[in-house]
Amino acid sequence: MNPPFFFSSGRGLTVREIGELTKATLRAGADPERRISGIAALDRATIRDLTFLDRGRFVEKAGASVAGACVTTEGLAPRLAERVCVLCVAEPYRAFVEAARALFPEALRPSSLFDASGVAATALVHPAALQRRSDRWLHRSPTAPRAEVGSGTLIGAGAVIGPNVRIGRNCSIGARASITNALLGDRVIVHPGCSIGQDGFGFVMGPRGHRKVPQVGRVIIQDDVEVGANSTIDRGGVRDTVIGEGTKIDNLVQIGHNVTIGRNCIIVSQCGISGSCTINDHVVLAGQVGLADNVTIGEGAMVGAQSGVSADIPAGEKWFGYPAMRGRAYMRGIMKLQQLAAGRKRGVDLNAAGDMDDHPADKG
Amino acid sequence: MNPPFFFSSGRGLTVREIGELTKATLRAGADPERRISGIAALDRATIRDLTFLDRGRFVEKAGASVAGACVTTEGLAPRLAERVCVLCVAEPYRAFVEAARALFPEALRPSSLFDASGVAATALVHPAALQRRSDRWLHRSPTAPRAEVGSGTLIGAGAVIGPNVRIGRNCSIGARASITNALLGDRVIVHPGCSIGQDGFGFVMGPRGHRKVPQVGRVIIQDDVEVGANSTIDRGGVRDTVIGEGTKIDNLVQIGHNVTIGRNCIIVSQCGISGSCTINDHVVLAGQVGLADNVTIGEGAMVGAQSGVSADIPAGEKWFGYPAMRGRAYMRGIMKLQQLAAGRKRGVDLNAAGDMDDHPADKG
Amino acid sequence: MNPPFFFSSGRGLTVREIGELTKATLRAGADPERRISGIAALDRATIRDLTFLDRGRFVEKAGASVAGACVTTEGLAPRLAERVCVLCVAEPYRAFVEAARALFPEALRPSSLFDASGVAATALVHPAALQRRSDRWLHRSPTAPRAEVGSGTLIGAGAVIGPNVRIGRNCSIGARASITNALLGDRVIVHPGCSIGQDGFGFVMGPRGHRKVPQVGRVIIQDDVEVGANSTIDRGGVRDTVIGEGTKIDNLVQIGHNVTIGRNCIIVSQCGISGSCTINDHVVLAGQVGLADNVTIGEGAMVGAQSGVSADIPAGEKWFGYPAMRGRAYMRGIMKLQQLAAGRKRGVDLNAAGDMDDHPADKG
User: Fold this and answer.
1) Which residues of C touch A57 (CB under 8 A)?
2) Given a cut of 60, is residue A242 above it in pLDDT?
3) Which residues in chain B have their CB less than 8 angstroms from residue C94's CB?
């Protein structure tokens, strides 16, 4: 790939070191001492780069690759020229990621931009009482006007941290994020521009105007959560808005008041989760999904891109469509429709369109 | 609920005081002197909290509640144990909100985070000429490079207020909002991260590039409007973008140039309103609705979640679907489709999916 | 229109000057020395304003206009009263825009709000090494912690520019934008609140948690690109995210990692472009469109509003629907459906709904 202006891998790793890290088998003839300092897609990789080859569109281009090293399966290895050091594993992408993490440890969480560590001078942390502690945080009087920030946490330029907010250890808070009325655990990553903890959207409607409903809950963000750029998480009205441990949220996502999200969920970009929804552990919502308020999504369920969900979804099911339906019901309906409209001459390609509910989180 | 770290209700209210405020009838045996200092959902409420019981999922849990007080209807009152002070009213949620407003007056509008009142030291108000006035504002030469801010208005940390912007009295401008080319009335709430008054998206397209169309209109935001976090409102091109009195806008909403929105509308999260649309008074747009440009929505109309509207909608109608259609036409079509696709064995549950056009604004 | 508090056209232009600029023919009786200082829509234009009359809803109101001057076609000219100076051209709106650009040159790109030129005092540009250069930029050691900004570039209040970022000449970076890991060309406009260059959303999923994938690519934004308010552009994972020359992006758009967008594309508000998509030159995506990851959109293709695209779209085609289909296939299907559901009594108005794929970018 092009010179990595923004990340440097230091001395890099040898092919042998990568092999040990990923428990790979080196193809005969591979130079175990070749030094790798970068990562790149197969078509861009140079002699200094590690790449990977998996099923998919790159298989036919594999023969032309001049990558320094490539992790792939035993079956695909013959596709790569002898000049490439080939490392064989069962799951090439997973192995590639492990090597990439070792090559670029500083890319595993955002920096504060203007400081090697700690709180950027331009961050607005309320007020003077910034404390770095080895213990997570001390419980304090609820009225003490102080924010607490754990050791190792970075707070980016221009970020705004409101009164009484508590942020755990080794977090990264992005530039220009605002966080109020919230408690954050350890290793939480909040990307730039997020707004967390503002009023939920609650009104009692009436013909002569809408009465604002006080929102006195909080936002609780547990350990290892990541929140994408410019996303919004409202604080609760009469309960807390809770984001469970390990859940990853993409950019421009809206999370309404009183929402509870479980552990290790994936919420892709531009999803909208209305107030008081309950999302259980390991749920995946693909991009631009909308949930009506008070919906419950069962553990491990997946919802396809752009779906509109107004009914509860049982655990483990895949739903898709507008309105969302179980499995391929929506797609089957659309296919039927196309047959009717075209006199059965042309249906939509069910396989192509069905990709919309494929796995969204791992896009390299 | 959990200790309210971020809001304190002071001395609270007695059950008697809540009864007077909400014009409720106390159930026999209720202690009128019990003191209430918090609010909570029924399943979380403690002896110090007020809660409410209405139709819906909490009715079956009501017997277990240990809330200090509960507003409900005469009909539902017997569901609550004797330990709960029960206040009977016709509209429990409305009464609950009135009591909550009295308990938490400071939650009725956002603070400036870093000051008890006024403009945060870190807000960037253009330039030196900040004035607090009891009169709304003085008309001035159009070229005077000064912003004016009314008395009682709070401007949050890191907010950016451009030249000549005028903001009325008792407004709250959120952290990191940017406001340019705009005039705001009184009691306007702008949540964190909003961008108001930047260029509309106007280009004359051509094969060799797109010519930018100058955008010389303004944004006019009338009294009592609320704009959610990270929402965007473009200024007009050849007319003004206008948001009418009392209209409430949720997070991540896009409002294009030249749009006119009437009074007391509700625009739920992630709606996109294209350029030059006209939305009349009391319109409700549920979440993720998209309007094509130049569409007119009649007074009191409602548009269901995720609908795509490219035709004018007459006053008072409910539309839903993609493309949006009157009433349940879209849902009837989808149901018919499912019957056809499944050989009539399984249709979609019309009642469940029909909830998507339910009332979105009042989610507790 | 109302007094333009925020933009002033200086001395303005005479009708004769506007005629020369737009190669228009003046209608007999028009006063070539009438001075025009503003622009407005036809129903708002005063004696000092230029307006335009084209096909559409304003034709019937044309007779009542008191505009100082109006560009229109020969065919529509008789609709305007004698008091209006009429300028006849083949393409009225295009001519109007050229005159507007001449009247309001300062509206062609955003100012830095707090400075006549250059970098706002409150912008956070990393670190001390800000340089204005007549040459575009010097290539430097990848580890040098310095951002470079070209001559004539404005950086708005509160903007955050990360280490090693390079910004070309005559750009405008909006208030509170954050830009990291990115290289920008000349004349790029970034509106307020954008987040550019943060981590892409890449995880290797697993039952015990998701492993973050290092994102070591960059964001490359070529000359004359415009990015709307609060939009997000993630940097690449293993390649760069690239936005081609002249492409215009509206507000609240999400662009995932590794995406390549060609030249002169139009991406309307709230579109979501998943990781590794390829969008060729001159593509138009209407509002709220979603692309699944790895989709390719051919040159000159158009995608209608709210469409969900999971298959490649060939060059020059128009697709629409959920899932997106070629031409009017989706609409034909929906129409057929309505006929079936209603016993053929009422179909949807295909012409009205078909407007959803109309041209979105030029809304005045």
Assistant:
1) 294
2) yes
3) 204, 211
How far apart are alpha carbons C36 and C8 in whole angstroms? 12
Query: From residue A31, how far is each of A11, A22, A68, B113 by CA, in Å?
Result: 17, 16, 10, 59
- Give the nearest chain A residue to B57 (CA atoms): A294
Strands B290-291 and B308-309: parallel
CA distance C144 to C167: 15
Q: Render pLDDT for B141-165 as a digit per residue (tens, 0 to 9).
A: 222 345 678 888 888 888 888 888 8
Structure tokens at C360: 């979105």
CA C293 to each of CA A286, A363, B125, C256: distance values in angstroms, whole numbers, following the listed order = 11, 7, 42, 9
- Burial annotation C214-247 (CB, 10 A radius, 16+ → b, else e): bbbbbbbbbbbbbbbbbbbbbbbbbbbbbbbbbb
Name the active-site residue from C139, C210, C257, C359.
Answer: C257
Clarify whether C210 is annotated catalytic.
no
Pairing of strands A260-261, A278-279: parallel
DSSP state of A313: B
CA distance C85 to chain A (A): 45
8 Å CB contact between C254 and C274? no
SS3 call for B14: strand
CA distance A106 to chain B (A): 28
C151 and B CB contact within 8 Å: no
Residue A101 and residue A136 in contact, taking contact as beta carbons nearer than 8 Å? no
Closest CA–CA distance from residue B122 to any residue of chain C (Å) = 10
Report pTM: 0.89
Chain A, 330-349: which have a CB under 8 Å from a chain B CB? 332-337, 340
Q: Could you tell me which of C234, C247, C250 has the C-alpha nearest to residue C191?
A: C250
A329 with B340: Cβ contact below 8 A? no
Q: Cβ separation of A234 and B229 shorter than 8 Å?
A: yes
Q: How many CB atoms lie within 10 A of CB A55?
A: 11
Distance CA C268, CA C286 (A): 5
Number of Cβ within 10 Å of residue A150's Cβ equals 23
pLDDT per position as a tens digit, B50-77:
999 998 778 888 999 999 999 999 999 9
| pLDDT the model gives residue B48 | 94
CA distance C74 to C65: 17
Cα distance between residue B52 and residue C38, in whole Å:
57
C6, two tokens: 């925020």
Picking from A39-53, A113-127, A275-289, A349-363, which range would have the lowest pLDDT averaged per residue? A349-363
Render pLDDT for B172-207 as a digit per residue (tens, 0 to 9). Answer: 999 999 999 999 999 999 999 999 999 999 999 877
CB pair distance less than 8 Å for A232 and B252:
yes
Q: Distance between alpha carbon A302 and the CA centroid of its chain, in Å?
A: 15
Q: Mean pLDDT over residues A148-165, rounded?
A: 85
**Which two tokens mark C332?**
């034909």
Whole-number Å distance between alpha carbons of A287 and A87: 34
Q: Locate C319 and state its tokens.
A: 């697709």
Chain A residues with CB-CB distance to C276 below 8 A: 363-364
DSSP state for residue A90 in the 8-state scheme: S
Cα separation, A35 vs B291, whole angstroms: 55
